[in-house]
Amino acid sequence: MLLLIAGALAVLSVRNLFVATMLLGIVSFTMALIFISLDAVDVAFTEAAVGAGISTVLYIGTLALVGSQEREKSKFAPGPLAVCLAVGAVLYYATYEMPRYGQPDNPVHTHVAPRYIEDSPTEIGVPNMVTSVLASYRGYDTFGETTVIFTAGIGVLLILRQRRRRKKEVTTEDPPLRDGKGGSISGLGSAHDLVPHVISKLLVPFIFVFALYVQFHGDYGPGGGFQAGVIFAAGIILYALVFGLDFARAVVNEKAILFLISAGVLLYGGVGVVSMLLGGNFLDYNVLSSDPVAGQHLGILLVELGVGITVTAAMLAIFYAFVGRPELLIETSTNAEQPGKERN
Amino acid sequence: MMFTLETHVLLSLIIPLLGAIGIALTSSVPNIRETVTLVTSVLLCLNVFSLLPGIMNGAEPAVLLAEIVPDIGLALKVEPLGMTFAAVASSLWIINSIYSIGYMRGNNEPRQTGFYICFAIAIAATMGVAFSGNLLTLFVFYEVLTLSTYPLVTHKKNADALKGGRIYLGILIGTSIGLFLPAIIWTWTLAGTVNFVKGGILEGHASAGVTGVLLFLFMYGIGKAALMPIHRWLPAAMVAPTPVSALLHAVAVVKAGVFAVLKVVIYIFGIDFLTTTGAAEWLTWVAAYTLIAASVVALTKDNLKARLAYSTISQLAYVVLGASMATSMAVAGGALQIVMHAFGKITLFFCAGAIYTAVHKTEISDMRGLGRQMPVTFIAFLIGSLSIIGLPPLGGSWSKFYLMLGAAEADEIYLMIVLLVSSLLNIAYLLPIVARGFFYPPLGQSDEPVPVGYEKSDFSWRNIQEAPLFCVLPPVLTALACVVLFFLADPIVRLIEPILTP
Amino acid sequence: MTALSSQFPIIVAIVPLLAAPICALFRGTTLPWAITTIISGITFYVSIQLMIAVIQGGPISYELGGWAPPWGIEYVVDLLSGFMLILISAISTGVLLFSRESITREVPDHQLGLFFAAYLLALTGMLGICITGDAFNVFVFLEIMSLSSYALIAMGANEDRRALTAAFQYLIIGTVGASFYLIGVGLIYMMTGTLNIADIAARFPEIEGARPILAAAGFIVIGLAIKLALFPFHVWLPNSYTYAPSIITAFFAGTATKVGVYLLIRFIFTVFGVNYSFGGLELTDILLPLAVLGFLSMSVVAIYQTNIKRLLAYSSVAQLGYIILGIALASESGLMATIVHIFNHAIVKSGLFLSVGCMFYVAGSVYLKDLHGIGRRMPVTTFGFVLGGLGLIGVPLTPGFISKWYLVVASIEHGGVIGYGLVALLMVSSLLAVIYIWRVVEVAYFRDIPEGAEKKEAPLSMLVPTWLFIAASFYFGIETTFNVGIAKATAAFLMGGS
Amino acid sequence: MSFGFFNYWIFIILLMIGLYTVMSRSNLVKKMIGLSLFQISVFLFYISMGKIDGGTAPIVVETGADGMAPVYSNPLPHVLILTAIVVGIATTALGLSLVVRIRETFGTIDEDEILEMEDKD
């Protein structure tokens, strides 16, 4: 716990952004461990994959593009500090009448939640309650969540696929690509290192298998579409890092990715629509099969698949967009008349 | 009568609006466009006058246009006072249209289509003000009037126009939204209605103090009544072409202001209620002050239109004075003043415009001897002046007479003195213009269109260089009307009598 | 048909959502636009049907996934949310009709598919927020709306690079706001054990004195205040509105902040209840000064702007002050003023931004210095702008007048020095509005047309929707049975519901 | 458990650090990092309230050896936080992509410098 605070303070004070990013990753990872101790295995899984994994990759990808040194300036900001202290004080004030931590008779545990704990195994037939709540009781939230990822994917594509109008600066901005410590990841691959090549070749299939396991085993253990998607994406990203972006593109090209992002959302929504057509409410899986429990099973399976597809594709899209950015710039500067035809 | 009274009421609004559309459609052919204007104005006038017999018989046609706020709609209701106002405005519009054509063409003004459209809309708004059935409707049309006249005021689109337009809009919108509107809403929360009801609606709902504050809000909220110190917009509006000044700033707009004052005093506060609370005491003195002060300022102005503007401010104060004395005679005097002053003042503006069209003079000191060149114009000017001063046998004498009676009724000796002094001041600032015109020799300077060598000669037909016929005819007509009105005072008083007797 | 109509609540949100991925896949300029417009039209139609159903039969509840609340997520359509649905979908449709010509100029062709997908997602987010009955679901849709809006605003970078920083600033502030909201909801969940808004409201009286609830209320109000750009949390708004593509500005100006206001009303009146909000929390004391400061200071700031979009953006913040003022007065007439003004301001402001969009289309700039004599270059557009501006000022026959009327009524009812003081301040603020609108008018009509500027109107496909908004604003300013009637019923419903 | 509100306090401190980073740092990436920190702290808050002493992860297991039905922690906050994490990563991705574009167009990612440049625009 104290490690968290130490980590956070370090993040605040460190001036090198690369280090800060790493520290953030550590904080996330510690957080994941704490989540496990708090019985939140699913969340821990996700936090580890996302907070410590994907987001770190994204940060590094960004730093590679923008440079990693914060400007030398130590400033003390009394205004923000006062605001923070005020916010903290309000919360601290609030804690005094909060229900005691971990007590079974807290309102959180007595209202609503018992239903999930007691009835979900019979109503849904899925042992992992988190999955059943996620995909069924609050399935719509998860649909929203998938949409959020979809939105992020679209948004990143919109923003990073824009070509700049001012072309003259392009050449001067290339150097930062190699300045930062993460320079080597910028899509070109570590062409001469045999060891990583072999190891990753060995690893990638296992990662995919593991991802599939997580995907379809989410009903029983921790995991599910989201985590699986992240892992799947991580596999491809690893591949891209080692062999270069072009190879990865050969495996999954960007058009396919865009298609997949959409397909995932549509699959999820489609399940909902089908359930509507079958006379139930939106996302009412009971009607999907003659047996409600089997229907729930089927529904959750499909929905999780949809989540998995969208997450994988969106993560890849974001990754490609970041890593592919420099190419795009060079492309634009040399080929301004036909802005990147092949990429569309 | 072709239709029911209600239809005629509606038509009064619709005719000018249709006219505006017609003008827009025929903008490419000036002759047809002007014909549309004239036909519209004649139709409107006929329409308004077709209401007259019904109103004389005590009918009160009402029309609900729309409900803006629950329980308060845009409602039209014709009562004698509004009838009077509408009749004056619509009949003067015909004359003014003729005059506009002469003036606008004579001066080759640009953007004439826009001018006529805005003019028609302004007239529609005036009709709306005249026939409004409640405060809200009055307010709505009052604002429409302000906004539709803004393009007219700034017609010249130069720096002066811009500045004048700013003052015009700033004061009128400022006071109406800042004071008038809150007063309306306040009235609504107090009385639960804002309908114009004979005898007032506030009695029993408001204490003396609140009444005083409300009256203050109303009187200064109705900026168009040009009470000092919010009179600045009226001189500012003189940057407009003269037909605008003539009809709108001597008749429609300013009269809408004082008309609103009368309406508020009579139908919202109630004459008796005001008398008993004495809340209007201060208003009397403000009006009296405005009356004198504006006259004095008028004396100092060399620009003819500016002088007329201050004269208007002073004359408007008569109406407010009449309202504030809150006796039936005084209110009758106020109502008469609306009519009489309208004809008198429009004559003067027409003359000012005719002079400008003919010789492009705006300063009084440059107008020496012009009477010999433009005798008809100057005689009309003389008649208008006399009417405003209040000499028989001209219409203006009646309004002054009733106001005096009202002051006497209220035992206000000082006010009678004020009225007397003011009449003297009127003489002092109006008659010298005529006197210079006729009795002084013309300026012998080179820019004087009268050729050197003729300046000592007496009147001769060869010297006459009047403005175009369309510019000269209207002042003659209105001057005649001033005379005629002297004999028509009785029917007008009978028309508005019902509102004075509770 | 009955089967379908029983699904209407979900259809409203789900149709644009599902259309978004489809739209993202299409290339070309026409198809994505056509899809988006049709979809938006469908939501508009469904919203109206829902509203009719609500008026006839009371609030509608829809259980997602067939799970009864509070276990499942519930969609609730009552008067307020129905009203918001209609407003949002109507404005969206109108803006889309306009967008065809405008957006092809401001956004590169190959991105239009994605652009409209993001637009649909923003629409989904707004509709979802308004219709859901679950506090956490609100957060999810809030984020859908926000994320897509960051991206959409950043699209303005094609014209002005400052769009990027504006979007980034909005992202940071918006995320902090959303997180505040999340903390607030967490605290409430902690105390009540439920996330369903109706359920929270039902359990609220038991725990309303507790400190965490106080903190929760604080976090939610502040979080939402950030989202709705209440002064002094408005810093993100002027930049975002200024640099976003024209149609995005028009769309968001009418809807995005209004959604925040909707949530605030929901929480203050439905969840916390009037007694707690204004008795326990003294929200009046907090919101009222902010609202007043907001509309006064922002109107003044608006006067000094040299960019029309920025001027209107500041005016938006000022107008939000009016809206919040109505809430702060905590009376039925105040609330009514708020709801009426949400509606009126949305229409007027969207119309204004669209007319500015026309100007941009022709003149290529929205700086006052480049728009000299625009009133003569583009008479139709500029006249529309002037009429819309009159609506902002609150001239009678415009909807702004209706709003102002009720605000003043509410202030007078509030009584005392504060009430009458407010009346005076409201009037001062209206006059400030006159000044900033008239600055534009004078530039438009009194300055000489620059050399070489051609006299040309925007294409009809842009003019017609613009005038649709302007005409609608006048319609609702005169025939007020729809907006005022619903507002009145809603206000009574919300005040009585506590 | 001995540490009563300890988790909540950690949450508060983390939140304050995150918020302070967002507000005080002018480097845009640092701002994003602060924002991530801020969001992570909220996750901790939610998960903490779902915990029950002696509880276990909310996945159905066979009845324990002692014959007692196992106590599960509340799964609902977990679900909520799963969603929130996704939202967090989505925000981060978008924010960072904006940073990249800002760096390209302005040539810096320092807010103060950007503001200076904007004033010149």
Automatic annotation (TrEMBL), chain B:
Keyword check for Transmembrane helix: yes
Keywords: Cell membrane, Membrane, Transmembrane, Transmembrane helix
Domain of life: Bacteria
Major localisation: membrane
Subcellular location(s) per record: Cell membrane; Membrane
Membrane topology classification: Multi-pass membrane protein
Residue ranges of every copy of the NADH:quinone oxidoreductase/Mrp antiporter transmembrane domain listed in the record: 132-425
Organism: Sneathiella chungangensis
Family per record: Belongs to the CPA3 antiporters (TC 2.A.63) subunit D family.
Record's keyword annotation contains Membrane: yes
InterPro entries, per the entry: CPA3_Na-H_Antiporter_D, ND/Mrp_TM
Cellular component terms (Gene Ontology): plasma membrane
Spans through the membrane: 38-59, 80-102, 114-145, 166-188, 208-227, 247-270, 282-300, 312-332, 338-356, 376-393, 413-435, 469-489
Descriptive protein name: Monovalent cation/H+ antiporter subunit D family protein
UniProtKB/TrEMBL annotation, chain D:
Keyword terms: Cell membrane, Membrane, Transmembrane, Transmembrane helix
One cellular component (GO) term of this entry: plasma membrane
InterPro entries: CPA3_antiporter_subunitC, NUOK/Mnh_C1-like
Membrane topology: Multi-pass membrane protein
Main location: membrane
Transmembrane regions listed in the UniProt entry: 6-23, 32-49, 79-100
Localization, UniProt: Cell membrane
Pfam family, one: Oxidored_q2
Family recorded in the similarity comment: Belongs to the CPA3 antiporters (TC 2.A.63) subunit C family.
Stated name of the protein: Na+/H+ antiporter subunit C
Taxonomic lineage from the root: Bacteria, Pseudomonadati, Pseudomonadota, Alphaproteobacteria, Sneathiellales
